[in-house]
Specification:
- 18% of the residues lie in helices and 12% in strands.
- It is of the alpha+beta class and 65 residues long.
- The protein has one domain.
- The strands form two sheets. It has a two-stranded antiparallel sheet. The protein has a two-stranded antiparallel sheet with strand order 2-3.
- 0% of the residues are buried.
C-alpha cells in the first residue's frame, strides 16, 4: 500500500513548479531569512529554480495495492 500525498505536500509541490524555493534550516522566520545550515549537498540559501516534481515509488510486491 502506498500513502497518498498530504495536502500540505500537494500545495508545496505546486509552489515548487511555479516559483521554485530556497533551502532553509530550522529557525527560518516568516520573511524567509535563512538562519539554518541546510543539509549536506543542500546548504542553507541554496536556490531551487521552478522545478517539475516527480514522485517515484518502488514497485509493488506480490500484487500489493
Amino acid at each position: 500500500m502506498t500513502r497518498k500525498i498530504a495536502g500540505n505536500q500537494e500545495a508545496a509541490f505546486a509552489v515548487l513548479v511555479s516559483e521554485g524555493a530556497v533551502i532553509v534550516g530550522k529557525g527560518t522566520n516568516c520573511e524567509g531569512v535563512v538562519v539554518g545550515k541546510g543539509k549536506p549537498g543542500f546548504p542553507g540559501g541554496t536556490v531551487i529554480p521552478p522545478t517539475e516534481v516527480k514522485i517515484v515509488r518502488p514497485p509493488t510486491v506480490n500484487g500489493g495495492k
